[in-house]
Amino acid sequence: MSPKNALRASSAFALCVFATAASAQDTTITVATVNNGDMIRMQGYTDQFTAETGIGVEWVTLEENVLRQRVTTDITTKGGQFDIMTIGMYETPIWGANGWLVPLDDLSDDYDVDDILPAMRGGLSHDGTLYAAPFYGESSMVMYRTDLMEQAGLEMPEAPTWAFIREAAAAMTDRDNDINGICLRGKAGWGEGGAFITVTGNSFGARWFDEDWNAQFDQPEWAAALNFFVDMMNEYGPPGYATNGFNENLSLFQQGKCGMWIDATVAASFVTNPAESTVADHVGFALAPDTGLGKRANWLWAWALAIPAGTQKEDAAKAFIEWATSKDYIELVAENEGWANVPPGARTSLYETPEYQEVPFAQMTLDSINAADPMNPTVKPVPYVGIQFVAIPEFAGIATEVSQEFSAVYAGQQSVEEALEKAQALTNDAMEAAGYR
After folding, report:
1. Whole-angstrom distance, CA of residue 304 vs CA of residue 306
2. What is the mean pLDDT of residues 252-265?
3. 371: closest CA among 290, 267, 258, 275?
4. Staple partner for 238: which of 5, 180, 357, 428, CB 3.0–4.6 Å?
5. 240 pairs with which residues across the strands?
6. To the nearest 5 percent, what fractions of the chain are helix, strand and coil?
7. Nearest one of 37, 35, 48 to 3, comparing CA atoms
8. Is there a single domain that holds both residue 154 and residue 77?
9. DSSP state of 289
10. Is a pLDDT exceeding 80 seen at residue 313?
11. Same structural domain, 60 and 133
């Protein structure tokens, strides 16, 4: 049966149960999502879901920082604007514990919850209950121009150090031809540039807090990490990198303006797609870099679909989540757009599929995900869980402010020392007000 005409039979029965009720009520659900490529692609297939179930879907597609603000405001005020929210590993356990999300503990047998990668399932659960289903999962890794690396006379190690990355960035930078040796996130936002500088800090031995919840921005490890980042980006990065996030760097890389880009593993399908990338035939992959201290600059994340408690359309929302995060959806995309373009990092079965094993970045993505350890994210011990975030409710507000101070450094508006001093003070003040200290 062609995916262009119907969904797989394995999920058809469950969807038809919802279809009868949905058709009678002319149900339409509203989904808030991020403007990343895989989510945009999903919207293109929504008509098939509607045809199969009778459930209409309205999309609210937002830039990452705006999405986080909108869904957080909506769920904390019980605004009721959305029937499904796209959230991640930071929000899900906290919101699930607060009773703000509908448990996903009654999904159909055909959906096969046990097939979700353990790292993803664990990060989207609270007390063993799943509260969000991963549309795709990711870590971060190095994506680089193999042609420029060869021209520079260098060979990318499978597991590079930051020292090598800087050496390669210098060698590949060609200002006359608008080629930056390296493109990295500098955009303010705890999940944008904040995420990247946090994992960079991890690899330099830095941490957000010591075991007594004291901020650690006054320690030498943070100074080393931030100075390294700023010096490298000022010398070899693109102009205006202080405002570049995932999508901006993706565009630069696809246009051939970056020698290297360290970012989400999910980007691999876009930079290797000849229809979108001018350098598709010259992209290699490596693990995120380290400094020899035992921690790499890679994160663990999933963009996932969750249902806010209080929705009047819970059954329809669950039907959509089962469809959008299923094995069948993966096959739908594969048959229409090729295995390289399916949403990665969410299901074990995907990495057991022979066709997907032939995708050049598949194994590196899985290795990067498996290398991430949210229970032990830093060189020194910490009282928190999370790699590019600290899994406490106060983190989003604190880290957004800290990332703004760091972005001001990238923009040349203040020094590293000034930013770290401000980060130390505002973090400790917030933690004291919240009762941690």
Report:
1. 7
2. 98
3. 290
4. 180
5. none
6. 50, 15, 35
7. 48
8. no
9. P
10. yes
11. yes
Same domain, 128 and 187: no
Task: Report CA 276 to chain centroid distance, whole Å.
Answer: 20
What is the pLDDT, as a whole number, of residue 1?
43
Rounded Cα gap, residues 213 and 427, in angstroms: 10
Cα gap 19→316, rounded to integer Å: 8
The answer to whether 63 and 117 have CB atoms below 8 angstroms apart is no
Tokens of 180: 């930056």
Rounded distance between C-alpha atoms, residue 101 and residue 96, angstroms:
5
Q: Are 206 and 219 in contact (CB under 8 A)?
A: yes
Q: Average pLDDT over the chain, rounded to whole?
A: 93
Whole-angstrom Cα distance, residue 284 to residue 215? 37
Domain with 156, as residue range(s), is 140-298+374-433
What's the half-sphere exposure (Cβ side, CA atoms, 13 Å) at 191?
A: 21
Angle formed by the axes of helices 220-236 and 395-410, nearest 10°: 50
DSSP 173: -
SS3 (DSSP) at 179: strand
Which amino acid belongs to residue 290?
Answer: D
Per-position DSSP letters for 53-101, written without gaps between them:
H--EEEEEEE-HHHHHHHHHHHHHTT----SEEEE-TTHHHHHHHTT-B
* Of residues 299, 107, 100, the one with CA closest to residue 198: 299
CATH number at residue 416: 3.40.190.10
